[in-house]
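In response to reviewer comment 3 from the previous cycle, which asked for concrete evidence that the modeling workflow produces usable outputs, we include below a single protein chain processed end to end. The sequence was submitted unchanged, and the resulting structure tokens are shown without manual editing.
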Amino acid sequence: MGKHALLSASSSSRWIHCPPSARLGEKYESKTSSFAEQGTDAHALCEYKVNKLLGKRVRNPTKKLRFYDDEMEECAESYATFVMEELNIAKEHSADPIVIVEQRLDFSRFVPEGFGTGDCLIIADDVLSVIDYKHGLGVLVDAYENPQMMCYALGALELFDGIYDINEVKMTIFQPRRENVSTYVLSKEKLYEWANNTLTPRAQLAFKGEGEFACGKWCQWCPLKNTCRKRTEYNLQLAQYEFRLPDELSDTEIEVVLSKVDDLISWAKDIKDYALVQALDGKEWSDFKLVEGRSVRKYANDEEVIQAVLDAGLDPYEKKLIGITGMTKALGKKKFEELLGGMIIKPQGKPTLVPISDKRQVITINNVKNEFTKITEENNNGK
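The workflow returned the following structure tokens.
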């Protein structure tokens, strides 16, 4: 496995906002997950698909991909198609644009020892395109002022700015499992301005282990998140309200709680998970103990149960309509659209309260209680 940069582009949102976390995180062992491994497989497939469309002789990696499935195949195909569409756009204003996949990008002129790997670059006169594939399903990734993408763009400019007459960078997140294609365009001058005024000063603090701790959404991927005192202090600020009944709080106080409650829930879960892992490793907590969790009954052997019910003259199976995802896989996307495309509806979702920065359109409801009841009944009847 290759060396990982201390100040990597992928973790830049964290160390830009919270510089000391970079050095403190070094003492924690880097752990992988099945989600990360799945993402690695998806990137390998995407690289193959793009190179194949570019006419290169490449070997199909699918037999070596542990997590390969129909969904990954479809995602990689759509990514490769998108790259070729972007290449055709580049050809409209440049005679000889080039496409490079999985390119090592060095941005150490701005960040000590800073480097990363760009999934796809399209280099042309006037516009440099940086495309990053995200296979994740959990977090919707936005390209707007995304520091990872901006670091990649800086690294790409280090390689090609003298060869091509580049005036702006086009940074795109391609996240097919969330149906998300997010693009942010920035002039080269503005990118360098951000690098000199924000990125480099924060990177220098982070590299030396200096600066102030700060909490925010970037804490989610921090190796310190379970034991970080700053995060604890931040979340325990809610205690000032003593968890009084909502009708005893002012509107302003309720909005303060709402702005922090998701972080509080996430932090509390991280603490519980950390304490459990420690207990499983032998630590004894003074006021807590390990016990066997609740379980539900299950068949000891499914095949024997099936045979026993069949021998009794009964049907052990229940018949139910295959869900949309399963039906799409069974029929194929094209056939599914032909047969069932006109039969698919998307019911209204339940009203939910989100920060004003959320990109979804606001809904206007005269009687929230009646509207909520109506939506719930429609959803239940549609099951």
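The mean pLDDT is 87. We consider this sufficient to address the reviewer's concern, and the full set will be provided in the supplementary archive.
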